[in-house]
Design goal:
Length: about 180
């Protein structure tokens, strides 16, 4: 797998690919190798013919590939987190919400809001004038939108009385205003 890392990834078992991703000597591999592994893992985590335990292993492998890809590129942190959010939301939909860890919608939302680093009102104010912003600010707001959009899938999993439910609702209402 080292000479042409992307060749043959799809023919490997989950055990082999987990070992491959865990080997520090593979950390230097190009972005395309990690993207290929991410695509493969996302497809396999969605395969309902596999046992849940195996599918969850594919979820973890997809997240590993996303992080390793980010280490090898200059991808914006929000773009990486948007990919992670998509994977986690799909996992939550497939396996149900659980407190703590990978399948925790509260943890997922809190991490997204932390990464944005602004309030929903601050972002809404910027979004109202996005057409007049410099290109890098437009891209930043687009990445905020890409990060928030998958969270639509977890709103119903957070109890209406939970403070985060109100915060998530406020953030989701900003999406239509973003570029």
């Amino acid at each position: 797998m080292h000479t042409s890392a992307t060749e043959g990834l799809s023919g490997r078992s989950i055990d082999e690919l987990e070992r491959f991703a865990a080997q520090p000597e593979n950390d230097h591999l190009d972005v395309q190798t990690w993207e290929t592994l991410r695509e493969l893992a996302v497809a396999r985590m969605s395969d309902d013919r596999l046992a849940d335990e195996t599918r969850l292993r594919w979820v973890h492998l997809a997240l590993t590939a996303i992080r390793k890809k980010a280490q090898r590129s200059d991808i914006d942190r929000k773009a990486t987190l948007a990919e992670e959010t998509n994977v986690r939301v799909n996992a939550i939909r497939a396996f149900g919400a659980q407190d703590g860890g990978l399948l925790d919608p509260v943890d997922l939302c809190e991490g997204a809001f932390r990464e944005i680093g602004q309030t929903s009102e601050e972002v809404r104010t910027e979004a109202a004038q996005w057409r007049s912003l410099p290109p890098q600010e437009m891209v930043r707001l687009r990445r905020v939108k890409n990060l928030l959009t998958p969270l639509r899938g977890v709103e119903s999993l957070i109890p209406p009385g939970h403070p985060l439910h109100r915060e998530l609702s406020a953030w989701l209402s900003v999406i239509p205003d973003l570029p």
